[in-house]
């Protein structure tokens, strides 16, 4: 049996651009680990390379984000025309299974662990069902990833990833986990064994990235007690790793120091905003803005690059706040921002329900617009065009070369921990990448106003596919003049 697992991708500029980076989707390795061992499996990550449209497989699993749905529908339709059976899974498929059933042979709603093996067994018996929604027993079901199938030559900076936990105990109103995933974690011996015996390392750059990996968890600090025990178990391994976790963990000085000793060199935290009203509007009370400076200094002096993500367009944002963001950041001498986006009301979130019930979704919004870089709603205090102006200005300011120089100059000497300096040096391109989404000067960044990617639009017209509209009721049909020529 020939199986392909494809993680699809479309670039925020809506141009055909690849963006290989340290963090990539690991869903292909995860799904491959749930398929029969004797299957002939190929993994594709479209962020790294194009998907070959002429290869022969029996079964194709698609993993995608909401904004890649139209593109994934095109790929699925092209494969189905050649007799290949296609499967959709993930958060979008779980939330919109009826829509997905039109474009894929089968849809997995819920977690992959119980569903992928059942689906493959049914396929082999010729008894494939339209929908698979078995409940997971627990995170102990998570099987080791097929690390040996990762091809580091496609993406020389990529690091292997592992999950220690799933879900998050917090309830930010814009987060796709809120109300859908309870927090749970894997037994530590399982995680350590997988790192020691299964993980394959990136040997590029003369070993500079060897023995380094990332935790893929949405919030590795969901249980500080678990994280503490995990760090103790990681110390003897002498590996280098990065993770994402929440602000409350950063306030625990002894835990941050322990993470540094356990090999943590990079933490990403969604700070989201430096404006208390915006934090409140997002229900993100765990972020204590008065303590930001202290947590930054603490992390760097423990040998950890702490990087923040910011989003604009929330209901607390005002022109006055957004104009002052560069000044607020300059006051935080050691800040490092590696993500800047526009808050998105993903359809399964409390934020979506709020803006939809208040009639604030923008007309003409389609799934492609839910990408974190396109305004899909009317904020309470800002005109949509103001949000976009601030977003573009901040992307250029924060992703600038002087900002990278400041990053290197201010941080390189802050710790003597092994691999600290190489982590700082590797992070420069990540900071520069903040401006990548705004590199298309004709893009408007407002839902309903930007065309789809040219190839997708042409294929959709040719194949008779309609975009999925997730805007306000009665916002009209997709208009052909949105298609590029
Ligand atoms: S803290 Fe992060 S992962 Fe947790 S609910 Fe909020 S945005 Fe989601």
UniProtKB/TrEMBL annotation:
Residues 1-130 form the B12-binding domain. InterPro entries: BchE-like (IPR051198), Cobalamin-bd (IPR006158), Elp3/MiaA/NifB-like_rSAM (IPR006638), Methyltransferase_Class_B (IPR034466), rSAM (IPR007197), rSAM_horseshoe (IPR023404), rSAM_sf (IPR058240). Its cofactor is [4Fe-4S] cluster. Transmembrane segments: none annotated. Residues 154-374 form the Radical SAM core domain. It comes from the Bacteria. Keywords: Iron, Iron-sulfur, Metal-binding, Methyltransferase, S-adenosyl-L-methionine, Transferase. Gene3D superfamilies: Cobalamin-binding domain, tm_1862 like domain. PANTHER family: ANAEROBIC MAGNESIUM-PROTOPORPHYRIN IX MONOMETHYL ESTER CYCLASE-RELATED, BLL1977 PROTEIN. This is B12-binding domain-containing radical SAM protein. It comes from Archangium minus.
């Amino acid at each position: 049996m020939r199986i392909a697992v494809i993680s699809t991708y479309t670039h925020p500029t809506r141009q055909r651009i690849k963006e290989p980076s340290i963090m990539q989707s690991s869903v292909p390795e995860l799904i491959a680990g749930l398929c029969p061992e004797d299957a002939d499996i190929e993994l594709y990550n479209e962020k790294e390379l194009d998907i070959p449209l002429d290869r022969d497989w029996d079964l194709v699993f698609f993993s995608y984000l909401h904004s890649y749905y139209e593109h994934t529908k095109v790929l699925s339709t092209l494969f189905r025309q050649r007799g290949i059976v296609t499967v959709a899974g993930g958060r979008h498929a779980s939330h919109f299974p009826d829509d997905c059933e039109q474009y894929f042979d089968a849809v997995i709603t819920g977690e992959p662990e119980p569903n992928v093996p059942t689906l493959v067994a049914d396929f082999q018996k010729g008894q494939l069902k339209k929908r698979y929604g078995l409940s997971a027993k627990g995170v102990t079901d998570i099987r080791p990833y097929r690390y040996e199938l990762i091809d580091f030559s496609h993406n020389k900076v990529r690091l292997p990833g592992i999950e220690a936990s799933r879900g998050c105990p917090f309830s930010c109103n814009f987060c796709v986990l809120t109300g859908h995933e309870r927090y749970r974690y894997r037994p530590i011996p399982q995680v350590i064994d997988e790192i020691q015996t299964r993980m394959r390392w990136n040997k590029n750059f003369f070993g500079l990235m060897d023995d380094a990996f990332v935790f893929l968890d949405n919030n590795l600090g969901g249980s500080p007690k678990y994280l503490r025990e995990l760090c103790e178990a990681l110390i003897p391994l002498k590996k280098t790793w990065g993770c994402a976790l929440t602000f409350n963990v950063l306030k625990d000085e002894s835990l941050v120091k322990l993470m540094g000793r356990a090999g943590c060199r990079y933490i990403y935290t969604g700070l989201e905003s430096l404006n208390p009203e915006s934090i409140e509007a997002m229900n993100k009370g765990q972020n204590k803005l008065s303590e930001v400076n202290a947590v930054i200094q603490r992390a760097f002096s423990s040998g950890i690059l702490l990087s923040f993500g910011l989003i604009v367009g929330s209901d607390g944002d005002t022109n006055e706040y957004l104009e002052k963001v560069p000044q607020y950041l300059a006051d935080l001498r050691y800040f490092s921002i590696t993500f800047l986006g526009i808050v998105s009301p993903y359809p399964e979130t409390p934020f979506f329900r709020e803006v939809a019930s208040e009639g604030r979704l923008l007309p003409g919004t389609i799934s492609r617009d839910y990408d974190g870089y396109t305004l899909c709603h009317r904020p309470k205090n800002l005109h949509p065009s103001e949000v976009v102006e601030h977003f573009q200005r901040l992307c250029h300011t924060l992703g600038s070369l002087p900002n990278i120089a400041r990053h290197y100059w201010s941080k390189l000497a802050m710790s003597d921990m092994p691999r600290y300096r190489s982590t700082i040096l590797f992070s420069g391109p990540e900071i520069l990448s903040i401006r990548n989404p705004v590199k298309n000067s004709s893009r408007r960044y407002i839902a309903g106003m930007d065309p789809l990617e040219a190839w997708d639009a042409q294929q959709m017209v040719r194949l008779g596919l309609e975009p999925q509209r997730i805007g306000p009721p009665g916002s009209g049909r997709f208009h052909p003049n949105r298609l590029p020529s």
